[in-house]
Fold:
Amino acid sequence: MPFTEATALAVFWSAATIVFYIGARTLHRLRPCWWLSPLIVTPTALLILALTLHTGYRDYIRGTHWLVALLGPVTVAFALPIYEQRALIRRQWPVLLIGVLVGSGIAMTTAWALASVLGLSDSLRLSLMPRSVTTPFAMAVSSDIGGLPDLTALFVVLTGVCGAALGDAMLKWLPLRSSLARGALFGMGAHGAGVAKAHQIGSEEGSIAGLVMVLAGLFNVLVAPLLSYCLRAFA
Structure:
């Protein structure tokens, strides 16, 4: 296969993404501040590089689409925390079920309502609805309900970063003494970024956050299409 310009660009942007992410993770370990999260530093560095080289989003994603494709195997790997915490699920399934149902319902409904108040287009409102679940689930839901998956991924990142920062502050004010409550706070409110933050607090909090994140993602996949239909019908 000849080494064309398109191949060179694909290699360049793939390598740049990976290198920036590794560098961002290293920086975050040295300075664990929320504004130095890899979810902020990596896209910002890539954006600056793309603007400097006058590269559009389509050219970038064309070269890095294989990284997006890896989200599929990652979704399958989410079954691991469910298996590891099966005993906890048997003991606490009513609390987990109610928390996931209420949290997911509020997240999707308020996202739609806020977007409607701001006068955003229908596609933007649908892209915002699944912002509170991790990227693989959110992009699948967004595609199913008529949103823009790539834009949804951006909303997911912003929600995760802000949720992890706010969750850390809320723990100082809320009397959440159980690992179940602390883990659920991050898993429901900040998905992947929240799980990473919960693991910094404790291994049990991290496992619970991962479990809640997976359950919320599954619930969104099943319910979001029906909820979006109802919201549009009564809008």
